[in-house]
């Protein structure tokens, strides 16, 4: 009889399944603001009172802005982001990250220089930010520091917030100790590991005092 405490072996997704799961992840991020836009339009269709109309228009404006920010972030974090060998400006990555993550509860301290990096390193950074954000579900501060310099630069993200915690199985998914479950939530840290491997790096998620760190080195 096998040891019940041992993690179950899960077959890694093939390319088609990986693409499908990443698409599901993007759809999951967009469904809320797009749904809010639809709700606002339905209110307008009902010929509402002036105050209800203004509320609906404000909801549509805010939700459209949120949907646009999430689309731009997902395009950079999960999309092709240019041709093979392309480089991405870290300044653009900072703009996308702030638009997607800073929501009144979570803020970013960006200590990286502005320079061009290979696209997979920038995609890795953005996916590390998503992982780090999950460790502070009540909000807080994400501090991004460089490790090294130039095109071989890697990253360290420190997450500080009330009740910062390690999400279940995320550390194992990042390290490769556990295979990915077939759902859109687990595929993102798994994809982060694939990006790190493509850059010749390893991603680690670990507690450090009252903070949680995500490091690629």
> Strand portion, in percent?
15-25%
Total DSSP E strands: 7
Termini separation comes to 38 Å
Shape: globular
State the CATH topology of the largest domain: Heat Shock Protein 90
State the low-pLDDT regions, or none.
1-9
Instruction: Give the second-level CATH assignment, the architecture of the largest domain.
Output: 2-Layer Sandwich
Main sheet makeup: 5 strands, mixed
Structural class from helices and strands? alpha+beta
Helix content: 40-55%
Radius of gyration: 19 Å
Summed up, the helix count is 6
Organism: Bradyrhizobium hipponense
Pfam families: HPTransfase
Domain Histidine phosphotransferase ChpT C-terminal: 91-210
InterPro entries: ChpT_C (IPR018762), HATPase_C_sf (IPR036890)
Which keywords apply here?
alpha+beta; Helix Hairpins; Heat Shock Protein 90; five-stranded mixed sheet; disordered N terminus; ChpT_C
């Amino acid at each position: 009889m096998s040891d019940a405490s041992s993690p179950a072996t899960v077959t890694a997704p093939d390319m088609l399944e990986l693409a499908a799961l990443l698409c599901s992840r993007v759809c999951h991020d967009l469904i809320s603001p797009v749904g809010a836009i639809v709700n606002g339009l339905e209110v307008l269709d009902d010929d509402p009172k002036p105050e209800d109309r203004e509320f609906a228009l404000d909801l549509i404006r805010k939700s459209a802005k949120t949907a646009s920010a999430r689309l731009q972030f997902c395009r950079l974090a999960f999309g092709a982001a240019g041709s093979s060998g392309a480089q991405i400006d870290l300044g653009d990555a900072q703009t996308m990250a702030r638009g997607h993550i800073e929501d009144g509860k979570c803020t970013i301290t960006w200590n990286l220089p502005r320079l061009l990096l290979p696209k997979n390193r920038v995609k890795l950074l953005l996916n590390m930010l998503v992982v780090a954000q999950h460790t502070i579900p009540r909000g807080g501060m994400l501090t991004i520091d460089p490790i090294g310099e130039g095109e071989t630069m890697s990253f360290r993200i420190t997450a500080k917030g009330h009740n910062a915690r390690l999400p279940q199985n995320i550390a194992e998914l990042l390290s490769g100790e556990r295979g990915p479950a077939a759902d859109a939530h687990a595929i993102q840290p798994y994809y982060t590991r694939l990006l790190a491997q493509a850059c010749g790096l390893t991603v680690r998620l670990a507690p450090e005092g009252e903070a949680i760190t995500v490091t690629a080195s």
